[in-house]
Write a structure and sequence with these properties.
Chain A has 6 helices and no strands. Chain A is an all-alpha fold. Chain B is elongated, with a radius of gyration of 27 Å. The mean pLDDT of chain B is 89. The chains are: A mainly alpha (183), B alpha+beta (303), C mainly alpha (551). Chains in contact: A-C, B-C. Chains B and C meet through helix 1, helix 2 and strand 7 of B and helix 4, helix 8, helix 9, helix 10 and helix 11 of C.
């Protein structure tokens, strides 16, 4: 029998992809019809976002590495990989929070203009997915201390697929929100 | 006068083509469903029919026929569409119609006349109308003149309007809230002379009246804050909360054309607006009978 | 043999609702058959509610300038009628049939994820209840089932109705996505060895393809709903044109979900018809490959036709032309199916049971709906008739004459399997003819009302020529439908009180669900035949005239 969990996760993220496509379309659409956005995009901290992007991409790599370690039954490597993933993703979330705080200090809020609405909704929903991912990875990580035997490959590979998806969504967000206005 | 390009005629023609083809197809489906259902009904001791799994050639033939029919209709569609919606690149509208919850504002651009609900157009002449909305989405539809056009806030839509002499009715066709059904459209297509007369009468100030009731009404119109929603100057675009009432008495109907413009109706309306038109934005002002009388008198002088 | 999924429940017969002790077990059940039945009951419950709302609408419109209900209440009622019928009747009804039948038809003993299955059901159920709770929380939504912004925004709809609408739809949407995920994985992983994807019964195939449509379409609605909710609750500006938002974007989101949704509600219905007509004609489906392939074509095209709902918003002719072309194209695979169903009847041996008659009535009525649908691809006709009663007639011919008739056909066909009892054929005939006559009385003339110029969603109209008589006939038809449904409910009740007498295979069917007892035991099958063709039971019953072996 094929891996049902992984299959389910594939279709689920396929479905989620449509959700994010809709949010990205909204963001791009509003950026193009209003002129105010370009002045506002100047307020985004692109270099920091680039560093955060690297963090998220690396965390995908470390998760892959720890899954490989799990398959080879290398407990320590697995734990190490998982903790690196957790640290990197927490750094990413921290960076996002700092970004939000800075924007709020500049009076750029959800209800100020259409840029605020679409920016916070898009990145907010992405962050929500990151948080869900951190929780899922956290659960797997804590399982590795309490009952390592109960950890199953299916759960890890499903979370891995999900985490890669979150990563890829961020790359698109990063491109459309941070890079595109600079081009 | 070029009837070939009139909206409703193009639509009617296309609809007749469609109806003929659709009737034939529907007739065939009904015929075969009933005929087969009857002819091949199960008889006692019937043998199992031959297990026929289908024929590729027949299917492809059918798809071919369907494709041909739809292609023909696609060409007709594109043709009709281009004839009806051929708006120049930088359109300069003759009339700008703005939808409000729940009434229609019309601005005659060249004469900067602002009026509401009763909209006059010259007959047998193509008039370019610009549509937009002040609040939610409304839709302009006069069934006899063909094609509807949505009034979308934030967008300018354009449409050619052409009509024979006469009066035309319609209703807002995009659901726009509580009074959607009562947002009626009334178009009067005047002959060239009548249109000129109408226009010049709109541009003239209303005849002066020397009557104490008139003076009271005029004063009350200011004091009771009518003026903050309704203008009585034909050129005023602001305020836009209520219809411009300049030359109100010249209109045949009021309240988005749901009530005849009579003294009694007007009285009942001003006395208690929500009772006449629920959810209306016009407030109940608790006016005395005398005050209402004076206001009605004043408004009725705005010819 | 790993034919069976391991499920925790012991191997006992299905708990009965008559058995006091087991009544609670329905609440905690993860059995696909019980969940399927609960879906159908949910659908029936909301069908009655939505039907009563429809009666209020028809009563209000029976005569011109009626004041039976206020404009505001009328708007709540028609909004709830549309939302209920689409999200809480047809969607759960078709999903329920799928949940019950798909494991049986592919020889599995459970859905792939039984708990997800239960979760999907309960989320849908609570979504529906939340939507209806709005009546007690300051009024139901009043912006129509497509809730066009900016009318659905806070300044124009200040009551909480729209918020309940958004939350209710998000929940039912999540439920539908959950069910779709389950369908896809079930069909991909739990098929009896030997059943290839090309050998699936058409109902399974169409629900399978349909699941992909759900997975693609519902997230788009959810995204739009979330934005609307953020607008309303957190003062964002997505759909408020006065502050830089766009009134049109909502329509794009809604219809890029909404049009696939139309097919989501009709594809499984096509599947039911493709099961019922062959069995009662004693012939295999005519052109299986074309019926199956046209489903895929419809699914793909359905994502490219949405803007034909928006021809009147003032798009350019190029855009209009593109969507007109795709809308014409999607008519072709639909037509192919109708031709194949008629082809199946050709030289058959047709038994006019209630199920089969519903299928035949479906053929005719759905064709009317399909053809009037094509007239909207002709852009100038759309410009004239969109948002008029012509559209109301069209959608009812598709949803009621199409989806609902086929659900009825499916219920009469599979009822022995579900409950071990046959619904009374005599009462069934009464139900059918009352309902079909009433349906055509109500909606056929509405085409004409639309052409005469009656806009939709109006709570009152002027006494224009023909308006009163046409609307009166329409209302009279609604009462006939009402009577038909009453007969149906009576039929359900007396049938459930009778003794279970149904044999495992009362219709001499060909698909695997007829290879087990009626109703099936908890683990569905004791033994399963080997499957080598699309009609395993046909091969079993006719060893000397087997279908072509496909594996």
């Amino acid at each position: 029998m094929r891996d049902k969990g992984k299959l389910l996760m594939f279709f689920l993220i396929g479905s989620e992809a449509f959700f994010f496509i809709a949010l990205i379309i909204a963001y791009v659409y509003y950026r193009n019809i209003t002129h105010a956005t370009d002045t506002v995009t100047a307020n985004l901290n692109v270099p920091r976002a680039a560093v955060l992007t690297c963090c998220l991409v690396l965390s995908s790599g470390s998760l892959m590495w720890s899954k490989k370690a799990f398959l080879k039954n290398k407990t320590t490597h697995f734990k190490l990989g998982m903790s690196i993933t957790l640290i990197l993703s927490t750094v990413f979330m921290g960076g996002q929070i700092i970004e939000y705080i800075e924007l709020y200090k500049k009076q750029i809020t959800l209800d100020k203009d259409i840029f605020g609405s679409s920016f916070f909704t898009l990145t907010g929903f992405h962050s929500l997915h990151v948080i869900i991912g951190i929780i899922a990875i956290g659960i797997l990580f804590s399982f590795s201390f309490i009952k390592f035997k109960n950890l199953i490959k299916n759960a890890i590979s499903a979370v891995e697929v999900y985490w890669h998806f979150v990563d890829v969504v961020w790359l698109f967000v990063f491109f459309f929100v941070y890079i595109k206005p600079l081009l | 006068m070029n009837w070939e390009t009139n909206n409703i005629h193009i639509i009617r023609e296309l609809f007749v083509y469609f109806l003929v083809v659709a009737t034939i197809i529907l007739g065939l489906v009904i015929f075969f469903t009933i005929f087969y259902g009857w002819k091949y009904r199960r008889r006692p001791n019937a043998e199992t029919p031959t297990q026929d799994h289908g024929s590729k050639r027949f299917e492809i033939l059918m798809i071919g026929i369907a494709f041909t029919i739809t292609s023909v209709f696609f060409v007709l569609t594109v043709n009709g569409m281009n004839q009806i919606q051929n708006i120049p690149d930088n359109p300069i509208p003759d009339i700008i119609i703005t939808g409000h919850m729940w009434w229609w504002e019309a601005e005659y651009r060249t004469d900067s006349i602002i009026t509401a609900n009763e909209i006059h157009i010259p007959a047998n002449k193509k008039v370019l109308v610009q549509f937009n909305s002040d609040d939610v989405i409304h839709s302009w539809w006069i069934p006899k003149l063909g094609r509807k056009m949505d009034l979308v806030p934030g967008y300018d839509n354009y449409m050619w309007l052409q009509a024979d002499e006469g009066e035309y009715w319609g209703t807002c066709s995009e659901f726009c809230g509580a009074q959607h059904a009562l947002m009626r459209i009334h178009i009067i297509a005047d002959s060239e002379d009548d249109f000129k007369i109408w226009k010049s009468s709109q541009l003239k100030p209303p005849p002066a009246t020397q009557n104490p009731l008139f003076e009271t009404g005029k004063r009350l119109f200011q004091e009771k804050t009518c003026i903050s929603c309704h203008s009585v100057n034909i050129h005023d675009k602001e305020p836009v909360i209520g219809p411009n009432l300049a030359h109100f008495a010249s209109r045949k109907y009021f309240l988005s054309n749901i009530e005849l413009n009579t003294t009694e109706n007007l009285y009942a309306w001003i006395k208690n607006p929500p009772a006449v038109k629920p959810n209306t934005q016009m407030p109940f002002l608790a006016l005395t009978d005398k005050e209402v009388n004076a206001l009605v008198y004043y408004i009725k002088t705005l010819r | 043999m790993s034919l069976f999924v391991n499920i925790a429940e012991p191997d006992k017969t299905l708990p009965s609702i008559k058995n006091d002790k087991d009544r609670l077990s329905w609440l905690s059940s993860v059995d696909h058959k019980q969940i399927g039945i609960m879906y159908l009951l949910l659908s029936l419950f909301f069908f009655i509610l939505g039907g009563l709302e429809a009666m209020i609408i028809r009563w209000q419109l029976a005569v011109p300038e009626n004041d039976f209900v206020s404009a505001d209440f009328y708007n709540q009622i028609f909004t709830m009628h549309g939302t209920t019928m689409i999200f809480l009747v047809l969607t759960p009804g078709l999903i329920g049939l799928g949940v019950y039948l798909i494991p049986l038809m592919i020889g599995a003993n459970e859905m792939a994820f039984p708990r997800l299955n239960a979760f999907s059901f309960w989320v849908t159920c609570f979504g529906g209840l939340l939507l209806y709770f709005s009546f007690f929380a300051g009024g139901a939504p009043t912006a129509g089932w497509f809730s066009y912004a900016p009318l659905s925004e806070k300044p124009y709809s200040p009551t909480t109705g729209i918020d309940y609408y958004i939350l209710g739809l998000l929940l039912t949407g999540i439920g539908s996505i959950g069910a779709a995920l389950n369908f896809v994985v079930t069909v991909l992983t739990l098929r009896l060895p030997g059943i290839k994807l090309t050998m699936l019964p058409l109902f399974v195939w169409m629900t399978f393809i349909n699941a992909f449509l759900i997975l693609g379409a519902f997230p788009l609605l959810n995204a739009g709903l979330v934005m609307l909710l953020i607008d309303r609750q957190l003062d964002a500006l997505f759909f408020l044109p006065s502050s830089g938002g766009s009134a049109i974007l909502w329509q794009h989101f809604f219809w890029s979900f909404g049009h696939p949704e139309v097919y989501i509600l009709i594809l499984p219905a096509f599947g039911i018809i493709s099961e019922v007509i062959p069995v009662f004609s004693r012939k295999p489906i005519y052109g299986y490959v074309f019926v199956a392939a046209s489903t895929v074509a419809i699914a793909l095209l359905s994502f490219g036709v949405w803007a034909h709902h928006m021809f009147a918003v003032g798009m350019t002719n190029t855009v209009n032309g593109f969507f007109a072309a795709s809308s014409f194209l999607i008519g072709i695979p639909t037509g192919v199916k109708v031709i194949n169903w008629i082809g199946t009847m050709y030289k058959g041996s047709i038994q006019l049971t209630v199920a089969m008659t519903f299928a035949l009535v479906f053929l005719i009525n759905f064709t009317i709906g399909g053809l009037s649908g094509v007239s909207f691809a002709i852009v100038p006709i759309d410009w004239q008739l969109t948002d008029s009663y012509y559209v109301v007639a069209h959608i009812h011919y598709v949803f009621l004459g199409g989806s609902a008739f086929s659900i009825f056909a499916g219920i009469y066909y599979w009822f022995p399997k579900f409950c071990g009892r046959h619904l009374s054929e005599k009462l069934g005939q009464w139900h059918l003819w009352l309902f079909v006559t009433g349906f055509n009385m109500t909606f056929l003339l509405q085409h004409i009302l639309g052409i005469l110029g009656m806009p939709r969603r109006i709570n009152t109209y002027l006494d224009l020529p023909y308006f009163e008589s046409l609307n009166m006939i329409s209302t009279a038809g609604a009462f006939l439908m009402f009577a038909g449904v009453a007969v149906f409910l009576y039929n359900l009740i007396i049938t459930m009180r009778s003794k279970p007498t149904a044999t495992p295979d009362p219709w001499d069917g060909w698909t695997l669900e007829w290879a087990t007892a009626s109703p099936p035991p908890l683990k569905n099958f004791d033994t399963l035949p080997e499957v080598h063709s699309r009609r395993p039971l046909w091969d079993l019953k006719n060893p000397d005239n087997k279908d072509k072996r496909l594996n």
